[in-house]
Design a protein that fits this description.
There is one protein chain. The protein has 311 residues and is an all-alpha fold. The protein has 16 helices and no strands. The N terminus is likely disordered.
Length: 311
Amino acid sequence: WVDHFSAARELQLGAAEAAYLVADAAALSALLDEADAALRDPADRAHLSFLRLKGQMAQNRLQDALETGLRALAALGEPLPRRPGKAQAAAALLRTKLAMRRWTDERLLQLPPCDDRRTVEAQRILSELRNISYVARPELFPAIIDKKLQLTVTCGLVPSSPAAFASFGVLLVVTGDHLGSQRFGELGLLLADRVEFHEARPETQFLHLDFIRPWRHSIREGLPQLQEAFQEAHVSGDLEYAGWIAVTLLYQMFMVGRPLSEIDALAQDLVTGIRSHRTASTLCQATQQMVLNLMGRSDDPFLLAGESGYD
């Protein structure tokens, strides 16, 4: 296992690769317990925590995954409040906004790569906690973004940095700063264009096209970008964000009034490609069933269930 873990570490497992390791969560947990007793390097132990929280996410144990990540960050000397109140969340947002005002796009793009393994692992864990907190503990989201960007400007860029910038853009949307949100969404896309950051392209595109771009640009004109982003994510093997992009594409097509038969046909194709991503494929089927109901292809138009497979 130690040899296997070392090889995995050298590959710097991304979210899509780690997803394959969590297919058998019980077996993974046993392996991690064995490795936990053998490894002492803080960065190695942090990576074990990363894999452990991925396993918990696969079991939909989001609160457990959050706690695993928070404990790992504390062990690395980068603690976060477990349950911040509204005042702490607002303070984290204000702190981040003030810090980012001192940085131009050019300076941020010219940051060096981070060469500290402990920081790299902390950033990897923060990326997962950001995704979980958005659903399971939203009040933690601003503190996570603050910590990610603080580490970025002090220690350098990591593979997830494009999505970190875009995530700050999402946070700015919530505050009504649509111009600032566009800036950081586009900054993330620029960084993701570099070869060394391609791993983060699907997630960055999803954040920008779903949460940020529609506030200042036509949704209709963004549909081709979503289609291209889906194809790119699918070909690269990032089924997680291919799935979320597919969800976004279908409901944005619905919102701009594309023909219902077109949405139905596309949904069938998309679900086939992302079936292993259960949450995203279920959401796609929900949109498809809504369309089928509106087309009259349902016994009960008020019951969202039928040939799409959604119930």
